Every structure is written in structure tokens, then in C-alpha cells.
Amino acid sequence: MTEVVAYRLAELVAGQSVNVRPQDEDVGELIASIRAHGLLQPLVGRHCSDGKVEIVDGNRRLKAMQIIDAADDAAESERRVIEWVHVVLRPAEAEADAFEISLAANVLRKPLHPVREFEAFADLIEKGKDRQSIADHFGIPLRAVEQRLALGRLHEDVRAAWLQGRINGEAARAFTLVSPAEQAAYLERAIQTGDNWRLGADTVRRSFTTATVSADTAKVRFVGLETYRLAGGGFIADLFAAEPDLTDGDLLERLAHEKLSSEAARVKEHEGWGEVLFGAEASQSYQWSRISKPALPDEVKPARAIEIEQRLLALNEHRDKLDDALLEVEDEQRQSEIEHDRDALMDEENRLEKELEDLIESQSWLSLPETTRAKAIAVVGFDRDGALTVARGFSRSKPRPEPKPSAMAAPAPKSSAGEEAAEPTRLSAALMDDLALTATKAAAHVLGHEPRIALAAFVATAFTWGSPLRLEDKGRDAGPALPWPRRSSSTKEDFAEVFSLVLTWDEESLQKHAARVIARTLDFTSAALSEYSYNKLKPQAVSALRCALPVDAHRAALVQVFDPAEYFSAAPKQEAIAAIAACGDEPAKYAKLKKADLGAAAARLAIARAWLPPLLRGEVFDAVLPAAPAPEDETGDQVVSGPAEPSEPESPASAADAALQIWLGQERTKLLAMKAPELRELLKERGVTVPFGSTKMQLIELALQPGDPDSNIEEAA
Questions:
Q1: Do 693 and 441 touch, CB atoms closer than 8 A?
Q2: CA distance from start to end of the chain
Q3: Are 433 and 524 in contact (CB under 8 A)?
Q4: Which of 300, 170, 164, 165 is CA-nearest to residue 238?
Q5: What is the pLDDT of residues 102-144, one digit of tens each?
Q6: What pLDDT is attached to residue 367?
Q7: Sheet harboring 377-382: ordered strands across?
Q8: Residue 537 gets which letter from DSSP?
Q9: Among 644, 388, 503, which Cα is nearest to 378's?
Q10: What distance in Å separates the CA atoms of residue 672 and residue 442, rounded to the nearest whole number?
């Protein structure tokens, strides 16, 4: 049986073993409420063996009343707030039962909904209470009262949605940023369309503040709220944000630009850099080269740096003493004072360490010669905390770009005895890729006629990554012809029909066409090399496959596909000189020629000697084909011929022949100006069959072949 009994405060003790709340919980709000209204709800307790009453539920209220009573004693107040305390007495019970009662009292206590709090506070305002007195009576900050009253700006439909659980508290607070009419329109639109995601707190806030700038940004911290305010910047009223959002983004941008400009001018004048940039002008600074920062010798360390280091040592010693004191002091008030002093020391340490770091940084760069600094660039900005940053020692001169990777490996340069090997010529990425495509076509043409090698590569590809066979249908589609066109969006062939037909082929035909299919998957170009996957092309795989192909057929195919004229028109001049030397001619004879003429001479020699550039021949082939052996006489001895006697130029047999020679020269000039695809189209119109892999020079010779001699002579005439 329970009863309510009034006790003196001294007769009550806190229930240590049955209280579910921590003993050090703040009771400031309760103190203010009890002083203003008294104890509104009785405590719950039970008798102890020593005659006192142990409180089972209401220990925070008991602690608040004890603090109030102690304060009244200290003030020797005649009017005491606490006279009697009403307690609901329960019969003696087990510890577990008492703990369960305490737990139920705390868990089942339902806090007042913020909307109901607003309604209660609004009612007090209407009855004449001011906001400060409400805050004092309930023991809560004035800002908390203002936040509750700010909910009065919520449209009644939004408040109802909050009470019904359609929106949460954060979303409701976001609605207070706009007028009630806008709130109702937004809520109705979201409910009618069923877009519940529109009622999330972040979505609501973004919808109402698209033109504002959050105060919690680096740029705002860099400029400063006070600077922005003094410049006439506005804020959006938001009692629920730690800091209000800014309404004038353009003004903020101008203030940041002005501050950076001022700092840039200061750094330039003080440190003597050639340029001090910021913003868009410095946006590409990550690509610029940078001078190595020199070390700062101890003998030139600034006096301020030494002063800061000594102060940091003293602060460190003082902090250690405070740490020791915290372990010894038991008085809570004294502990709070020590912690406050320690926090102040930590703040000063952090500030001095940042100042020392910046000072050493700037002085290190200032040790560079003035002439060096006058040619370099510094960049000013701000970090995420809004603090000024200065990055020094930049130069706009970019490092020479590395050539694009290629799967085609050129042979290492060889040196003569006692001489250093010449550095290989750097080719453009496009030219290297053209050579890789040339090698792909040649290897595919040969591989298509080598079923054993093709099937071996096919099987190896099925179990490994990095093969030059691009079985994902990403190959270059080069090689001998197939019975059907390559797969595409317009492919109409049915698998079952084609499969049935292929099954009827004999083994030789099957191997032949399998090799051709595999050949069309080859790709040695950078497209396969730079592919971002496990199957990225590996150069060693290209080399392994090329070395396995028959040497003579492979080299002949490369010579057929390679176009010396196009190559030398794109390659550096040194490549033409090297080719002339490799072909056995004297490069000095061509030294005064322009690049185009030099390339033409090199192309003629390359065609005559079947010359291949280093990237195509790799470690497999020589630069040129070996010279043909000298003819033998009837005795078997080689005939050594002396220098040829100069002969008179051959004169044309007739005027018609002379006209034909002139026409051929003019026609050759015209054909040389055409591109290879145009030449192929011209030959196609003439009905001329073009052999696989024909170069531009070979196409020109085909175009000059006499079809109907009489018609040529008539045209020439």
C-alpha cells in the first residue's frame, strides 16, 4: 500500500543502487523550475534501516533541492524555498524491484512535443509573460525559448504534419525559413505528388536557400562574418542554425577577392616574388614545376622564431604541472578552473606553433637569391579553416611531356667501341601509334596464314590477361578476308545457320578460317595498351607473338604495309638521316636539303633497301635487307666491277616518247600531292587491283602503269 508523506529534506537520501541516471547529470533547469514553481511532482521513496527515506524515483529533483537549500543556508535567507518535500512511500522491496521502478519512471516518461511546448510558451506570452522571464522560470536559455516561439512561424498544416510524424523536427525547422504561405504550398505539392523525399530536412533547406551561402564554409571564415556584416551583407533569419546563412554571395566573393589581392600585394612586396597569384590565375599551379625549398640554417633563424620556441617550452612545462594538479585535486570547482586554464594554454600553443611554422616557411624561401625569387611565382589562398595559405617557388615552365606509351619496343641503341650510344629519337605519340597499327596489319596478315600459331595464341588468350588478341571484339579487323562480314548492328546472319555450315568444313578449311578470325582480333596500338582493365595489353606479349611469326613472311608483310613517304613526312629530320646511313648511303650528301626533300630521298632509299624503322623491326629484324651477292663468272669467281663510266643521257626515240615522258613527270607530281586513300579510289575507278599492304609510292607506280599506250600518248600530246 502506498501513501504520500511530507519529510524534511535532511531525512531524504539519494538511491545510489537503484538510480538509472548518472549522478553528475546537470540539474540547472530543475533548480530554476523549482525556485519558480516549487516541486510539481512528488518523489518516490522507501524506508531505510537507519530511519531515513531512500529515493527510488526523483533523485535529480532531490539533488536540485539540496543545492537550493545549501544556497539558502549560505545566503542566510529567511524565506526558504524548500520546507517540506512530499514523497510517495512504497513498501520495502528487493533491489531489483526498486531498480525496475526507477527504470520505468525514466523510460516511460514521454517528453513534451516541441509543438506543444510552442503552444504553451505562446499562451504564456499572451498572458503577459516576457521571453526572459519564461526562460528564467523554466531554467532554460533564452535562445531555447525563442526557438520554440519561432515555431509559431510554421503554417498550421506543417505543425500538423510534424505532430503526425510526416516530417521530423529538422525538416520543420527548415520550413521556418520561408513564409507560411510558401510552406503550405511546398508541403501540399510534396504530399499530392507522393514525393516523400522532398520532405527530408536537407531537401527542404536546399529548396528554400538556393541563393544563400552557408556560414560554415572556408570562404566565409576567411572573410569573417563581421567584415561581411560591416560591408552591408545580409543574413537569413534562422534560430535553429549555429550561425545564419549569408544572403549576398556576390558581396562575399568580392570581399574574398579584395582580401586575397591585398595579401598577394603584401607578400610580393615583402618577399620579392616575380608574381603572386590567386584564384583562377593560379588554378593550374598543380601542373607547374617548383623550386626545391632550401633549408633554413640555425644561424639565420629569426629572433621571433627563437622567442616562440622558448615560449612553447614554458607552456609545455606549465601544462605538465596542470595535468599533475588535476590528478590530485578533488574539488569540482577547482578542477573546472584548472581545466579552463589548461584549455587556454592549449589554444596559445596551437596559435604559436602555427605562427612558428609560417615564419620558418617564409624565412626558408627568403634565403633564395633575389634574382631567383624575382623569376618565380607565389600563390595565396585559404585552407578549410579559412586561414591564409602561401605556396611559394612555382614556375610556369612545364616539364617536357613523356611520350605516349607504346607496346612496340624499339631496340636499344648500340654504340661503337669507345663511343657512347646515341639517345634514341623521340617520335610523336601519333606517329608511334601509326607504326603500331602498321605492325598490327602485317602480323595479322601473316598470322592469318599460320593456323598452328594462331590457335596456340587463341588458347593462351583464353586463360591469361594482356594478350594482343582482343577477343572482346576490339581488334583492328585486319587480315585475310572472311566468308562473312564482321559483326555489327546490321548483322543478320543467324548463329545456328553459320555454325551448321562451318561444321561441314574439313579440318584444313576450319584451321584456315580460324586463323583468319584470330588474326582480326590483333591490336598493338595504344588503345589496347591504355585500356583500364585486367586485360590491358602487355608489351612483352606483343614481342612474344611477333617473334613467333615466320621471319621472312613477317618482314615482307611489314615492308608491304609500311609507307616510307608518309613516315618521313611526320618523323623528325634525324630519322631520315639515320635511315639514309642504314641504307648504306652518305648522309652528308643530303645535309643541305630541306626536310621534305630529305624525306623524299630517304623514302626512295628505304623502298630500294626494304628499310624498316626501329619501332617496327624491334629486336626481330635488321634495318635493311642484306645486299644481293655479286654475280659470278664462268670460273665461279665473283666479278668485281670498277666505277661505272658516265653515260650520255638517253634521248627519247621520238617526239611522242618525249611528250609521254613529260606527261609522266607531270602526272607523278600530281599523284604525289594526293593521299593514299585518294590513290586507292583512283585505282579502283580504273579497275586496277591493289595488292594487300601497298604503300603510297607503290600506289603511284601502279597509277603510272601504261594501260592503253596509244591513249596515254594522245593525252600527253
A1: yes
A2: 137
A3: no
A4: 170
A5: 544 444 445 567 777 777 777 778 888 888 887 776 666 777 7
A6: 83
A7: 275-277, 377-382, 388-395, 289-290
A8: -
A9: 388
A10: 24
